[in-house]
Specification:
Structural class: alpha/beta
Oligomer: single chain
Number of helices: 7
Radius of gyration: 17 Å
Order of helices and strands: HEHEHEHHEHEEEH
Strand order of the largest sheet: 2-1-3-4
Strand content: 15-25%
Number of strands: 7
Length: about 190
């Protein structure tokens, strides 16, 4: 599969021997993957995926392999058992619903609830992981309201936070400060 070829390439390039397992169809490698929904898939924005990948690679490479995947991969490939974190970038969550409702979400839910996986959603990815979404209520062009299958956050995800949001634009985008409670050497301690 595409994953096996990519993994072999990453394994040879980094020659990592980690105790944490990595995903492959039939082979266990010595490093862990962070999966991010691909910029080519419906619902994602190219810029958000690029920024997400750049940031994750800057912070986590070579300790984690970061691979973009499609909704097809999430529905059909055996990615879950050896994935450290599933990342959904920003864009729009309704295309995520169209692509993943049913089997895709069942597999994501199994990964989280049964395998102890982790989910990180930015913007649309965060809405997608909530039980209920209320976005731009009252806006004829952008209103989104409804229940989501995953429901990791049991409350209502409301937005946008700042007025003037425009899809496909950085208009009204605001950088958030993120404070981690992990010690600085947490990644090295996993090895």
């Amino acid at each position: 599969s595409i994953f096996t070829r990519h993994l072999e390439s990453r394994y040879e390039r980094f020659n990592l021997l980690r105790h944490v397992l990595f995903f492959s169809s039939n082979v266990v490698w010595g490093f862990t993957i962070l999966l991010t929904l691909s910029s080519l898939g419906p619902g994602t924005s190219i810029e958000s995926v690029r920024h997400c990948n750049d940031t994750l690679r800057r912070l986590l490479d070579p300790h984690y392999a970061i691979i973009n995947v499609s909704s097809h991969t999430l529905r059909t490939e055996p990615w879950a058992p050896h994935t450290a974190l599933l990342v959904f970038p920003s864009g729009a969550d309704l295309p995520f619903c169209r692509e993943l409702d049913g089997e895709g979400n069942r597999r994501i839910d199994h990964y989280i609830r049964q395998l102890g996986g982790r989910y990180l959603g930015f913007c649309a990815g965060a809405y997608y992981g909530a039980k209920t979404v209320e976005f731009e209520m009252g806006s004829k062009k952008m209103e989104v309201r409804g229940h989501r299958e995953l429901g990791f956050f049991k409350g209502v995800a409301r937005g946008s936070v700042y007025p003037g949001f425009v899809y496909g634009s950085d208009t009204c985008a605001v950088a958030a400060n993120i404070i981690s409670s992990l010690p600085e050497n947490a990644i090295q301690n996993e090895q």
